[in-house]
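Protocol step 4 of 5: obtain the predicted structure for the target chain.
Materials: sequence only (see below). No template structures provided, no constraints applied. The aim of this step is simply to have a reference model before the mutagenesis design in step 5. Sequence pasted as it appears in the construct record:
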Amino acid sequence: MSSVVKPVSTLAALLVLTACQTVAPAATAVTNPTTTSSHANLNSVLWYQTSAEFRANSIQTYNQARALLTAAKADRSWSAWPQSTAAAQLPPAIIVDIDETILDNSPSAARDVLNNQQGFDEQQWDNWVAAAKAQAVPGAVAFVNAAEAMGIKVLYISNRACKARDKNSSCPQKADTIRNLRAVGIHKADETQVWIKGEQPDWSSEKQSRRELAMQQYRVIMSVGDDFGDFLPNVKKDITPAQRAALVEQHQTLWGTKWFMLPNPTYGSWETILAEPKQQYLNGF
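Step 4 output (structure tokens):
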């Protein structure tokens, strides 16, 4: 009997000691991962982080874009948007978005789900940007490195926002972003290539002014993004899903040749243009 009682007594003593200890609280409480979350973004984040389908789609998109680089560079009339005939003499460039196009920020979204955080937390997002820990979207690094190796400039036009953290820097997010791009294996990414929101007075979340600036300096041969606003202006508000769908059809010859869309079900203008209640947009049978 003593051989049985002794371990139990020892365990009880350990439990008492543990209960008496002071444990520092976690920085952010995380809900029990063994319970099913009712967070609206649960399935979207799970799909993004776990599905083979997501990885295959990203790699497929970048493989297709990469296969066209040689032809796009050689054809002086090849442009992602209409440019003047003088653009034929400009050096070639590609415009890419960053978030969910080059860098995978799903850990930030996953944290929101685990903590039942509803809506966008600006401070948490800035903490994530500062950490520069995002991994690459599948296929992205090989694509941009191949383009740069061919002498094609890659311009990163992002809606990551400039926001002062202290008096020493008005836009630390730019340096954070460049550090993250280099960390995932991108050979060339510097401050002349990364153009983020708010860096210049007219650089708003509407990217058209930055696209136009790029086209003054380069023959832009491709655009890669995860949001419709990465390709066209005036599609992120005051517009219906049907109107956006009509624009997709209107530009159908560009998809997969000069415009390359990556999947992102976790956030984007696809959702923010929808009025409440969002169920009204569902079509059943």
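Step 4 remarks: The longest strand covers residues 153-161. The mean pLDDT is 90.
Proceed to step 5.
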